[in-house]
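seq as requested:
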Amino acid sequence: MISRRNFLKLAGLGSVAIAAGYTTGKLTGNSKSENFVVHGFIPADETVFENLVSSFKNKIRSNAEPVVIADSKISEVIVKYHNQHSTDLFKNNGKIVYRLKRLNKQVDSDIIISDSANPIYSIDDLNYSFNEIRRNIRNRKADYLFTAEYKEEDLISSIFKSNKKEIVIENQKGLVDRISFDKNYKNIWIDGPLGKTGLKIENGIAQVHTSACRHGICKHSFANEVGNIIACAPNKVLIKIEAV
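struct tokens:
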């Protein structure tokens, strides 16, 4: 199994959260948004899909209907396991989004987890079910990039939430630019130590189209909501969405 450090380099995540806001051990009662995210490279194995969805559901304790961003057949599989692992004991009602995208080349399988208290969980902090998933995919090649995200806002945050968003771009030198989501941009170039990272914004979605690093895994992610982050650790580029 790849090391945590190498996984972060491969994923282009660095030491930043995929999404932030979740407080360890508690999904309600705080005056801020709550997020919990599972992100990983996984093999094309339905048992792995089911175990990830089950562990995710047990952590977020929500039966909310999910949004699934994947091709139709895989979407059906994710929804099936999501519904199978629902229970009346789950009372949270935040937004759930699953994303599953086939990789254009195989890499080593692994998973990472993030929340506001732990931008990236250390391996020792993973609970038993997630540790078992990591153990079972050890030494296997990944076919998919998987993300499961739970997001919940308290009443105060939802009332004062801004409808306007902007892209904040940073590199190793600091702030590069702030760009409104109101317009489309085909090519926004960001300098980094390895070269230029290319970003596009179309119809309210930001996505990296050109990567200077060897793996280019950041091109598999996109950002369209406040709190979403795309990061390339090798090229020291951070792209995030903030409320204006």
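The two ends are 41 Å apart (CA to CA).
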